[in-house]
């Protein structure tokens, strides 16, 4: 199981900026990884996470401090989705795996086997990809995925299950 | 774990590792100014903003309808949940705040005396089936570690599944009113996807299996039937009031949506609608089993005649979450586009458009003509979830 932050109760601070800064230090690494798994490049991921914390700050204090991490996850995913949507509109973005070798550290290090998985994953609908990342990297339960994405638990499970089936098929086709 | 799952985990881990554990976050920039210095500015700007908000409508005699939160419940024929910092369920005249003192809670569909939910007692904790009552209280029913819930056609019962940890799962039918266990059945699937409950019984399949097949369990007789279906692509819709189902099959890039009835353990197909490319794993069929929805292409297909009608709805019509039928001829479609992005903060001074909370527009489409009209636009929220009626 990969941890990306404690899910337990976060003390309610009096000072909004200090509380958000504390959350930032605690959850930045996990959230940046979540974003990079969706948007595929670090610069966009850092922007996405920065904006998520800015939004949290504007809304602070939350009614329930326990909801801070789910809120941040949802905000990161929402913004990652916007990044992907803007790329689709611009049609200018080249995924790291398709760039000439050496243009991105992550691409250079990817074994061909992983490149296939990356290509297959990129061909899935964004929502399916989000569910698979939350399920297979963060090991979230379907109910937690559902809450993060604002869908029903059965939809989360069905999407993950079907996503694996589609991924299997795509990987076969790439062979 | 399948080979695909192993490869996926390996890829995700390697990709995430491009951000090493030792990475240090850049300085937190909460709006390009020091937060402490920002407070007085924000307060002053908020005060100015408040004055403007109060005075401009008085001066102009006008308010912009599209900037007013739509806090009145929508006149939709199905329940829906507005998901924001808090979740609120709307079902016709009823508004039910969903309690938040739990790990997570997902509303599934309407049942007798409330709405079926799955909920966790704490984040990462134990999952249960619960009935959300109109007063906002949750009545937990059935065993712990329940996965998924599906209501019977009359809403008096629900079915859930409980993995037994030995590669199998126990299906359990519960009485909604009393929580009493009415029937159970063990199936050889580590995880079960509950797909629907119609006149034939309960439709399910094995989840997380690269290849699987639809399975029908009739809890009244205890009969379990595996319905052989080459190319079954993990998509099945079984409207409660019909005995007709819709399945998705796929061979390479070619997909088909097939409707039919179960005859001698096989699906007797009475309509096929096929194409190539694109995902097609979320089929939707009208309550009377007469209309197929092709969300990706914004088309509906009449099962009897094969007539294809274009749905005239603006924006992208996502296949997922699936559109929901309000009745036999009216389809509710949720669209979300860049035009829905709104500024969520009333605090001036930061001034960027924020895509996190958006207005979601629900369109009502007449599937006999293809005409669609906006039926409801939500206030800015993270998500709007339409539920089966």
TrEMBL record, chain A:
Annotated ranges, domain RNA polymerase sigma factor 70 region 4 type: 114-164
Keywords of this entry: DNA-binding, Sigma factor, Transcription, Transcription regulation
A Pfam entry, by short name: Sigma70_r2
One GO-annotated biological process of the protein: DNA-templated transcription initiation
Source organism superkingdom: Bacteria
Stored InterPro entries: RNA_pol_sigma-70-like (IPR039425), RNA_pol_sigma-70_dom (IPR014284), RNA_pol_sigma70_r2 (IPR007627), RNA_pol_sigma70_r4_t2 (IPR013249), RNA_pol_sigma_r2 (IPR013325), RNA_pol_sigma_r3/r4-like (IPR013324), WH-like_DNA-bd_sf (IPR036388)
GO MF, any single term: DNA binding
Family classification: Belongs to the sigma-70 factor family. ECF subfamily.
Protein name as it appears in the record: RNA polymerase sigma-70 factor (Sigma-E family)
From TrEMBL, chain B:
Biased composition (Polar residues): 12-25
Region (Disordered): 1-32
Assigned keywords, A-Z: Membrane, Transmembrane, Transmembrane helix
Basic and acidic residues composition-biased segments: 1-10
Alphabetized InterPro entries for the sequence: 6-blade_b-propeller_TolB-like
Transmembrane residue ranges: 38-59
Database matches in Gene3D superfamilies: TolB, C-terminal domain
The UniProt record lists the keyword Transmembrane: yes
Entry protein name: WD40 repeat protein
Organism, scientific name: Kribbella caucasensis
């Amino acid at each position: 199981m990969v941890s990306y932050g404690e899910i337990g109760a976060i003390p309610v601070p009096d000072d909004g900026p200090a509380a958000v800064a504390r959350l930032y230090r605690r959850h930045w690494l996990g959230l940046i990884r979540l974003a990079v798994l969706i948007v595929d490049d670090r610069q966009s991921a850092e922007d996405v996470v920065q904006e998520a914390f800015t939004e949290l700050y504007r809304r602070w204090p939350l009614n329930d401090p326990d909801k801070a991490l789910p809120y941040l996850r949802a905000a990161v995913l929402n913004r990652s989705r916007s990044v992907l949507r803007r790329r689709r509109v611009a049609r200018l973005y080249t995924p790291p795996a398709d760039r000439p070798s050496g243009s991105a550290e992550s691409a250079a290090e990817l074994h061909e086997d992983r490149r296939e998985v990356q290509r297959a994953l990129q061909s899935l609908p964004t929502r399916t990809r989000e569910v698979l990342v939350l399920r297979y990297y963060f090991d979230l339960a379907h109910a937690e995925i559902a809450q993060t994405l604002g869908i029903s638990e059965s939809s989360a499970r069905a999407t993950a299950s079907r996503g694996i089936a589609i991924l299997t098929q795509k990987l076969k086709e790439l062979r | 774990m399948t080979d695909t799952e192993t490869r996926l985990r390996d890829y995700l881990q390697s990709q995430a590792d491009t951000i090493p554990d030792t990475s240090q976050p850049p300085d937190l920039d909460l709006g390009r100014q020091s937060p402490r210095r920002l407070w007085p500015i924000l307060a002053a700007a908020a005060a100015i903003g408040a004055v403007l908000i109060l005075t401009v409508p008085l001066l102009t005699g006008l308010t912009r309808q599209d900037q007013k939160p739509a806090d009145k419940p929508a006149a939709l024929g199905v329940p829906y949940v507005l998901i924001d910092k808090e979740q609120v369920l709307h079902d016709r005249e009823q508004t039910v705040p969903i309690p938040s003192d739990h790990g997570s809670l997902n509303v599934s569909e309407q049942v007798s005396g409330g709405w079926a939910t799955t909920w966790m007692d704490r984040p990462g904790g134990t999952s249960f089936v619960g009935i959300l009552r109109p007063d906002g209280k949750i009545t937990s029913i059935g065993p712990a570690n329940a996965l998924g819930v599906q209501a019977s056609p009359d809403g008096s019962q629900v079915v859930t599944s409980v993995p037994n940890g030995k590669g199998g799962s126990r299906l359990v039918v519960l009485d909604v009113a009393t929580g009493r266990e009415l029937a159970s059945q063990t199936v050889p699937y580590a995880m079960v996807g509950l797909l629907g409950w119609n006149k034939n019984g309960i439709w399910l399949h094995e989840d997380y299996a690269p290849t699987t097949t639809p399975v029908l369990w009739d809890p009244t007789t205890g009969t379990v039937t595996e319905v052989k279906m080459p190319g079954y692509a993990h998509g099945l819709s079984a409207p409660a009031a019909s005995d007709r189902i819709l399945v998705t099959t796929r061979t390479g890039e070619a997909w088909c949506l097939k409707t039919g009835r179960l005859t001698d353990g096989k699906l007797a197909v009475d309509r096929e609608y096929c194409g190539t490319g694109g995902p097609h794993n979320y089929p939707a069929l009208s309550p009377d089993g007469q209309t197929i929805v092709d969300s990706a292409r914004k088309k509906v297909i009449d099962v009897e005649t094969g007539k294809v009608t274009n749905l005239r709805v603006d924006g992208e019509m996502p296949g997922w979450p699936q559109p929901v039928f309000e009745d036999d001829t009216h389809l509710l479609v949720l669209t979300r586009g860049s035009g829905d992005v709104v500024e969520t903060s009333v605090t001036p001074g930061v001034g960027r458009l924020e895509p996190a909370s958006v207005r979601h527009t629900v369109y009502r489409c007449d599937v006999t003509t293809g005409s669609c009209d906006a039926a409801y636009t939500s206030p800015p929220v993270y998500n709007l979830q339409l539920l089966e009626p």
